[in-house]
Amino acid sequence: MMETAEFSTLLETLCPMFVLLDDQGRIRQVGPTLQKLRPGRQMVGRGFLDLFELVRPRAVTTVPALMSVAGAKLHLKFHDEPRTALKGLVAPLPGKGGAVVNLSFGISILDAVRDYALTSADFSGTDLAIELLYLVEAKSAAMEASRSLNLRLQGAMLAAEEQAYTDTLTGLKNRRALEHLLSHLISSKADFALMHLDLDFFKSVNDQLGHAAGDHVLKQSARIMLEETRGDDTVARIGGDEFVLIFKGLMNKDKLSGIAARLIARMQEPIEFEGNPCRISASLGTALSTQFQSPKAAEILHAADLALYEAKRNGRSGHRFYSALSGAQH
Amino acid sequence: MHGLINRAIQSFVCATYGHACWLRATEVAELGFSEFEAMLIYDRELSMNVLDALCTDLNRSRADLLEDMGTYLVSHPNMEGLRRLLRFGGVSYVEFLHSLDDLSDRVRLAVSDLQLPALELQEHSPAQYELLCHPGLPGYSSVMVGILRAMADDYGALVILSHEGRKEQVDSISVTLIESAFSEGRQFDLGARKP
After folding, report:
1. Does the distance separating the beta carbons of B39 and A113 come in below 8 Å?
2. CB contact under 8 A, B85 and A138
3. Are residues A137 and A282 in the same domain?
4. Looking at the structure, do residues A254 and A206 belong to the same domain, yes or no?
5. Is A297 part of the contact surface with chain B (CB cutoff 8 Å)?
6. CATH of region B91-179, choose from 3.90.1520.10, 2.40.50.100, 1.20.1440.230, 2.40.128.110
7. What tens digit of pLDDT does each residue of B76-114 get?
8. What is the C-alpha separation between A16 and A18, in angstroms, rounded?
9. Measured between CB atoms, which of B7, B37, B91 is closest to A120?
10. What are the structural domain ranges in chain B?
11. Host domain of residue A322
């Protein structure tokens, strides 16, 4: 049998966190790394169970019980602060009683290296602790890079979505956004009025003063429409000089007529462009979702279109409501 | 080419020569964008075009530029994370040299699609080493010379490095260790964590 001194040297090399116990469960010797966790506090001579609490199996509170769990994986904690969690394994010494308990950090390694300022030299050469620490740092760095990519992609996606629903010239919603909104309103069975607005004399502004003037007129018209509607109404540009306004929950024909009249009046005010007054006007046709048994987007749009046509036929700068009667005629 | 490599070039150029220099290079190389994403893969040609544009712009050889990049990757405060990962390789410069054999595997553990060429350390004597850089990434050995030099400073070792040339596509770097504890070197605290 090996001498005790030789045995200790062997243990120090192989398991720097060993505890050598006598048959009374008192600590005879500890590995250098384990001692480093409690600097200035002598471990040798103290009872193992006075220093460590067994977390699992919890029933182990006596030395004989400790000796009886030989070979099983133990979860322990220091009784005092910092209560670093440790894993352990008890191996009884052959013959003369007593045991070796080999301890290691489980997942607590991350806190332990910081709390106790451990270095590579504190781990045995075959311990995977350093590799684990390496991996944690490497994976965190990789994760951080992925996360920042995800954030940028999310930002780009929101911007692209916003763009896809926006008419870039006027900043109003576009046809796509309108279709989206209509199908949402219809599927949620919400009542709404749909107003189709067509600019009058827009073509002549374009022809006489050029596209820049036309663009300016479109932007100013858009601004007027936004000013004359409520915040939760929707204004969309669905074609060159065609707009659709959606008034959710507004079915009062007098109010809608009032809005239409104000829109026409403001559109008729000359719009200044590079010193030239641009004169336009607007014709409007309105349909109500309540005019249909089970409304469909295309159906309501078509109805508003018919009303608009009716308005134009009666001289420009007018507003008409759709009536089922006139719808039947066309 | 992995985005991390492109990102390393971008970070090095911006920190050393300024953002304007980087933008010029991306324009000359006709990338169509100015920021590489670290976690995407790009055509190798793009990276090579940017490098060529940088070499022309800065009037430097590719080997010189890449060697400086290797130094940057270890010594610049921006790159503290990478320096730490390399320091996990060992407690001394010699241990670090030996850990380079595992570098490409270690890298793959962290980022599975980042393939770096194999490195092989040959020990001719306790003071004389040769690092063989296997093919797969043009310029890798130049970057490694910069990394080896900066890591020597980090460990406080005094070394002489030279690029010995290439045999059958394998680049050879000779490392002569004059003194392993020449200076204090920099601290490496295992438990240090980013705030």
Report:
1. no
2. yes
3. no
4. yes
5. no
6. 3.90.1520.10
7. 998 999 999 999 888 899 999 999 999 999 999 889 999
8. 6
9. B91
10. 3-60, 91-179
11. 175-329
